[in-house]
């Protein structure tokens, strides 16, 4: 049978692909689409309101499977292309083409006819690729101050751009991706100590420059200040907790939303839909799926055949992990509301589609490790 025949290719796919990761992502996709549809139904939009997310989830999932068959070395070799495209799209948000999405105060979207796209989502994946390549090329000199300085400047580019857009939440996610990938590179812990010290010193200055609205978002989660901000910045989180609590053990039932007026229920507060309609069981299932996904990404990072593969997996692990922690903290009034979505579950076409591009990279790392391991055994 010819090596490149469809049957041989399909056989190789099933034998060498990370089927655990694929099945976990499939389950997350189904659950996420169900929740987004329910939230859209609660707003009175039905499938029309959820169609973008559902279509993007399906296309993204299929795209991830195709990307998994490509060599991630070849994908990363094109890092100038990915960096250039993402930077160009980000810069366009500062032109008249940039726009605000409803209910946000940051200009972080581009309008493409009736479709909107958030370039910072694509830049997350581009940054993981470019920073992974950067780390893999300097890992022999990782303790040098000059090397660390250049790595920091590399990370500052997307951080400053999203900060200038007004998207503080996404800037924090970029910082966490940067720190996580830097950590696994084996950098001297002294740099972290210096950075943490600088952060602690800068907190008072940062607080003094914050708007009153942002200060209120932080204060409303602190005992003693909750009542003061309950009808203002804290109202959204208070209603979110009520919705989650109303689900009790097994929920009110699918499409049985009792608080359809809750803003961003299909987006930042998608966890409230799981908690209300499926109860504690539904919320626990969502958490279990995220934890399974994070564990599989961690496993892929440990088994990667080289440092570049490890950096790519760790980048996606940090992106999904920290975004999930922040979003769930917002829903449970443990963290302030900063406009962070729950990966794969929150409504958003550009978000879920680009996340699957990253999953495709991880699948490629896993596929490459599996095929090369089998080749070495044959030799």
Over all CA atoms, what is the radius of gyration?
Answer: 21 Å
Helical residue percent band: 55-70%
Mean of residue pLDDT values: 87
Which residues sit in consecutive blocks of at least 5 with pLDDT less than 50?
A: 1-6
Largest sheet: 3 strands, antiparallel
Content-based structural category:
mainly alpha
- Total beta strands: 3
Number of helices: 15
Question: What is the string of helix and strand elements?
Answer: HHHHHEEEHHHHHHHHHH
How widely separated are the two ends? 21 Å
Strand content: under 5%
Shape: globular
Strands in their spatial order, largest beta sheet: 1-2-3
Describe the protein.
The chain has one domain. It has about 375 residues and is mostly helical. The two termini are about 20 Å apart. It is about 70% helix and about 5% strand. It contains 15 helices and three strands. Helix 6 (about 120-140) packs parallel to helix 15 (about 350-379), helix 13 (about 280-305) crosses helix 15 (about 350-379) and helix 14 (about 305-330) packs antiparallel against helix 15. A three-stranded antiparallel β-sheet has the order 1-2-3, covered by helices on one side.
SSE layout and pairing:
Blueprint: H1 6-16, H2 19-42, H3 46-67, H4 72-77, H5 79-92, E1 98-100, E2 107-112, E3 115-117, H6 119-138, H7 145-165, H8 168-184, H9 189-209, H10 212-219, H11 235-246, H12 270-277, H13 279-303, H14 307-331, H15 349-378
């Amino acid at each position: 049978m010819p090596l490149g025949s469809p049957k041989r290719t399909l056989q190789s796919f099933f034998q060498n692909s990370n089927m655990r990761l694929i099945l976990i992502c499939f389950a997350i996709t189904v659950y996420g689409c169900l929740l987004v549809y329910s939230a859209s139904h609660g707003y009175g939009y039905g499938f029309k309101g959820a169609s973008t997310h559902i279509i993007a989830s399906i296309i993204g999932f299929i795209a991830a499977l195709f990307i998994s068959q490509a060599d991630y070395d070849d994908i990363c070799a094109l890092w100038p292309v990915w960096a250039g495209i993402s930077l160009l799209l980000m810069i366009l948000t500062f032109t008249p083409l940039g726009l605000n999405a409803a209910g946000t105060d940051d200009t972080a979207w581009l309008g493409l006819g009736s479709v909107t796209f958030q370039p910072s989502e694509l830049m997350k994946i581009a940054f993981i690729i470019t920073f992974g390549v950067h780390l893999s090329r300097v890992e022999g000199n990782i303790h040098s101050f000059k090397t660390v300085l250049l790595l920091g400047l590399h990370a500052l580019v997307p951080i400053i751009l999203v900060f200038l857009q007004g998207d503080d939440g996404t800037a924090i996610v970029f910082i966490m991706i940067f720190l996580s990938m830097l950590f696994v590179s084996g950098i001297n812990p002294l740099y972290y100590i210096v950075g943490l010290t600088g952060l602690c010193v800068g907190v008072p200055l940062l607080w003094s420059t914050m708007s009153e609205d942002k200060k209120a978002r932080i204060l409303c989660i602190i005992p003693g200040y909750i009542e003061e901000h309950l009808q203002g910045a804290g109202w959204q989180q208070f209603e979110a907790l009520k919705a989650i609590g109303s689900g009790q053990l097994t929920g009110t039932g699918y499409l049985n939303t009792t608080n359809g007026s809750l803003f961003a229920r299909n987006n930042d507060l998608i966890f409230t839909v799981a908690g209300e309609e499926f109860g504690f069981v539904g919320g626990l299932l969502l958490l279990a799926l995220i934890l399974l996904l994070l564990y599989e990404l961690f496993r892929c990072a440990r088994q990667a055949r080289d440092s570049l593969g490890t950096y790519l997996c760790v980048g996606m692990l940090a992106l999904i992990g920290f975004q999930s922690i922040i979003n769930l903290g917002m829903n449970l009034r443990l963290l302030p509301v900063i406009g962070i979505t729950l990966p794969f579950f929150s409504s958003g076409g550009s978000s879920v589609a680009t996340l699957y591009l990253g999953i495709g990279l991880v699948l490629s790392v896993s596929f490459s490790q599996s095929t090369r391991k089998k080749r070495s055994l044959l030799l």
